Amino acid sequence: MRFGVLGPVAAWTDDGRPVRIPDLKVRALLADLLANEGRPVSADRLIDDLWGERLPRNPLATLQTRVSQLRRALEEAEPGARALVVSQRPGYLLRGGAVDAVRFRELAARGRAAADPAERSALLGEALELWRGEPYADFADAEFARAEVTRLAEERLAVLEDRAEARLALGEHDALTADLADLVERHPLRERLRAVHLRALYRSGRQTEALAAYAELRERLADELGLDPGPELASLHEAILRQDPSLAPGRPRGNLPAPVTDLIGRDGAVAGVRALLGTSRMVTLVGPGGVGKTSLALETARALDPPDGAWLVELAGLDRGSRTGAADVVANALGARDDRVPLPERLRGKRLLLLLDNCEHVVEQVAALAADLLRAAPDLRILATSQEPLGISGEALWPVAPLDPPDAERLFAERAAAVAPGFALTGDNAGAVASICRRLDGIPLALELAATRVRAVGVHELAARLDDRFGVLVAGRRDAPARQRTLRAMIDWSWEPLTGAERVVLRRLAVPADGCGLPAAEEVCAAPGVDVLDTLARLVDRSLVVAGPRYRLLESVRAYALERLHEAGEADEIRRRHLAWNVALAERAAPRLYGRDQREWLERLDAEDANLRAVLDSAPPAEALRLVNALSWYWFLRGRVLEARRALERALARGGDLPGAVEARVWLAGFSLLTSDGTDERARGAAVRAAETEIDDPGTRAWTRWFLGFAHRGFGDLDVTADLVGRALETFRARNDRWGVAAALSVRATIARARSDLAAARRDASEARGLFREVGDRWGGLHAAGTLADVAEIAGDYPEAARLHRESLRMAEELGLWAQVSFSLSGLGRIHLLTGDADTADALHERARRLAVAQSNLVAEHYADVGLALAARRRGALDRAEGILARWLPWIRKVDGEPGLPLVLTELGFVAQGRGDVGRARALHEDALAAARRIGDPRAIAHALEGMAGATVLAGDAATAVRLLDEATALRASVDAPLPEAERGDVDRVRAAVRALTDRDARRYSDGR
User: Fold this and answer.
1) Residues annotated as DNA-binding region (predicted)?
2) 238 in Cβ contact with 384 (< 8 Å)
3) How far, rounded to the nearest angstrom, does the alpha carbon of residue 488 sit from its chain's CA centroid?
């Protein structure tokens, strides 16, 4: 908690939120405690301070109420803050919290102790910035605050005088004359303040005004106090009359311009560059045009303040053909115009900083000059800004990066508010501002140019028009250099010095949508006589290409380079090259996604995702079919099934009669099953028939059967799936295709599990897992492991099931297979639910649900949601359980397969039983039993029978309930699937009810009824 008394009394939380203190007396209580600076204040004194002679009916009780209100206000703002108000005999005190007056005194003490005038001025200025008005402004007349108000006001004046003296030592006399005028008028008799003012006037060349000010002071002192000015002031007056040389300001300590706006987002960089200049005599700030190199260099130079000054040397206007121009510009900036003494000799022994700004157009001659100066002047430091390194011995580089999004948005908002008063970031415009900053790459100059347009068009229209950025960003500052007045001029400045080869590579590199690796760059940018690698390296040095694992352009540079590409007439050819490269990459990747290289090629395709999307959108029909066929398994592994379906539909709409169309229709049929309700049998059947008649290769036909069987698994008739997978397995075995055999066995294992043939499921899944391990396919391995985990769960081996799910989860996360991650999370959630840890189960199921939604995977989402419903029903949260289950009922009735219609209906029946609605419960359980028998799952049948028994016993039919339970028990025993512990409570309650009914009937019989 922070408290403020340097202005109206206020409080804030640690993160800056204001604390509302609700009542005047409560605020007065807080002010009184703050004025006593942590000392206890007696209850009697607090009562007297707050009410004086107008006491309330019960003063002590009223004070206690006000204390409680203060504690409550602090606690509501910051939990735990009520403890700051401490009851201690004989009253109360405020303990803890940061008070601005304490901070003010700490900064003042540090400032006075600082030897360096710049540091002293900065610290004292920071102390003065804490003031928001008069101290205790809303209680300044209160007796309890009067002494503290007087003391703080005097301390503030003393700090103002201290800072004025520090600024005078820094040579800021011109600014001081204006800054001190009002203060002198309000405190005309403060001699120390007058002394600083007189010195500032004299140093500014205003000797007459300084003498008049002294005469006015002498007259006021005589009239009002009967005194003469003190000895120090009198001596100063005499020195002014004599024009004593000691009063003259020191020689200029540099020529740095005063900052006009704040430097945003570069505090860490300023500190870093200062530190680097402590170990390196030359530091070059490198980065693209407009990134803020000059602003960072100026701020760093101001902070350093070397003994012989910091000197800005502007090189942007230098004629690049001149051999001696750089030395002349440096000499002029330093005021060293005597040609008889060479510049390096003049700088020998000087402890100064040269800021060589905008070196990129004359980098060779600036590099030669800098090397000469560093050798001749050992105490010299050079800070340069350039789009490329100078490349001399001893040079250290500091890359200046674009602003991070929060700083970019802050810069844009501040500059926009300067031209459009009242503009501020709000919930309505934050998205548009973020888009502008992102599309302009966080480049400060581009953001400032964009901000000038806010007044005319607003941020939403500005964001919409950035596709024409060079036509929109044309209104820079009139006082800026020509190269900084428009976005095009900014990039023209970087384009001009490029060689022919550099221009060729830069404009061609604009075609990849999100950059590219070196092999792609060498293919796309190739030209006779051009060494692409060497040219790329030079463009990276010039800050026009961003290097890393991939080469990319900032968005504005890319837009500019695309214009140049069209001007050169190369756009169509380079796009054809880019398309051919990406098609070849996708086809090279496709077979490698099924084995040991799976992870590597998934990551390679991830890196090229933006380029693959871009070329797919514009590819001719034949190339589009090649691309979608090559990328479909990648899309499947990444869980991007909807995207795959849309891409396949577009490709087939344009090339349905071209080679590759049959394969694309197979993919589309499979993805349609995976993204719909599972009833798209017509597309599946057509794809199977086409594959059987139009695909000659047996291996491809077998793969087609497997994929369509895999996609059909869980939807409708399991016999259809089993037939497709069985025929595929025969071919895979005959061809010794180990991946195919493993994939078919893995699907067959899920069919066996759905039919509760646990031995067959375990056998097939284990064999599949072993084969997948042999071929190195981790997706296949975790798919088989998931089936084994389900089998272990059904058999009651929960530790083994959890181990397998965790193993699958780890592999899925490593590969980024987020649909599989969702299933593994839900599988773990089921184990926690079955072992009685409902809270952990809920957390896992919720994570799984969010992932499934993000992947648009209905089956995974349903699996996670049912887990949440199971936990809710067992907690007695019947409304929540019913809400979740009922939402899925329409979809799952259409699926009528493995996703679990019997389970949902049975659980809804248990909800109805919990409410005592016997008729609805019985109807739901009967519906569940019919669905379970239709899909032939003994466990689902047993679960439905157990629900039926519950509804039957509620209806008073104990004999039927016993028969149903016995039938369910026999079914579970037949497939070695014992009743889970978590579900045993439902059956135990039914058996207890049966015993109660039987006992009641026996008593009735014995009573002769």
Assistant:
1) 1-96
2) no
3) 30
Residue 205: Cβ within 10 Å count: 11
CATH 1.25.40.10 fits 900-1009, yes or no: yes
Rounded-to-integer distance, Cα 514 and Cα 532, Å? 18
The encoded tokens of residue 628 equal 């979608």
Per-residue pLDDT at 250 exceeds 70: no
Which tens digit of pLDDT belongs to each residue from 318-375?
A: 765 555 578 888 888 886 654 556 788 878 878 899 999 999 889 999 999 999 999 9
The whole-angstrom separation of Cα 714 and Cα 894 is 12
Q: For helices 571-589 and 609-618, what crossing angle results, to 10°? A: 120
Place of tokens 């466990």: 939
Alpha helices in 204-307 (DSSP H): 207-225, 231-242, 267-279, 293-304
**Order of strands across the sheet with 41-42?**
41-42, 91-94, 85-88
Find, among 414, 401, 730, 447, the residue nearest to 546 by Cα. Answer: 401
Q: Does domain 498-576 have CATH number 3.40.1160.10?
A: no
Q: Domain spanning 172-249 has what CATH number? A: 1.25.40.10
Q: How far, CA to CA in Å, does 246 sit from each of 240, 249, 251, 500, 629?
A: 10, 8, 12, 61, 87
Q: Which stretch of 295-299, 801-805, 948-952 has the lowest confidence by average pLDDT?
A: 948-952
**593: CB partners within 8 A, 6+ apart:** 601, 602, 633, 634, 637
Contact 28, 50 (CB under 8 A): yes
Cβ atoms < 10 Å from Cβ of 730: 12
Helices (H), 835-978: 838-854, 858-875, 878-895, 901-914, 918-935, 938-954, 958-974
Q: Name the token pair of 812.
A: 């899925």
Q: Which two tokens stand for residue 979?
A: 């009743």
Do 658 and 622 meet the contact criterion of CB atoms below 8 Å apart? Answer: yes
C-alpha Rg value of the chain to the nearest Å: 40
Distance CA 362, CA 671 (A): 59
Compute φ and ψ for 440, nearest 5 degrees.
Answer: -95, 10
Looking up tokens 């995207």 gives 643
* Separation of CA 778 from chain center: 30
CA distance 802 to 824: 10
pLDDT of residue 336: 60
Residue 680 has pLDDT above 60, yes or no: no
Sheet arrangement for strand 10-12: 10-12, 2-4, 98-99
DSSP state, 19? P
Name the nearest CA neighbour of 412 among 433, 431, 396, 427: 433
What residues contact 576, with CB distance under 8 A and at least 6 apart? none
* Structural element, H or E, at residue 157: helix 143-169
Which residues are within 8 A (CB) of 872 and not within 5 positions of it... i.e. 6 or more apart?
A: 878, 880, 881, 884
Q: Are 958 and 997 in contact (CB under 8 A)?
A: yes
211 contact partners, CB below 8 Å, separation of at least 6: 237, 240, 241
Please name which of 714, 650, 641 lies closest in space to residue 677, comparing C-alpha atoms. Answer: 714
CATH architecture of 267-399: 3-Layer(aba) Sandwich (3.40)
Helix (H) / strand (E) element for 310: namely strand 310-314
Q: Residue 652 in contact with residue 662, Cβ under 8 Å? A: no
For the chain, give the longest Cα–Cα distance: 138
Provide the CATH topology of domain 1-170.
Answer: Arc Repressor Mutant, subunit A (1.10.10)
CA angle 451, 452, 454 (to 5 degrees): 65
Which ranges in 776-855 belong to alpha helices (H)?
778-794, 798-815, 818-834, 838-854
Helix (H, G, I), strand (E, B) or coil at 4: strand
Q: Is the pLDDT of residue 1000 over 60?
A: no
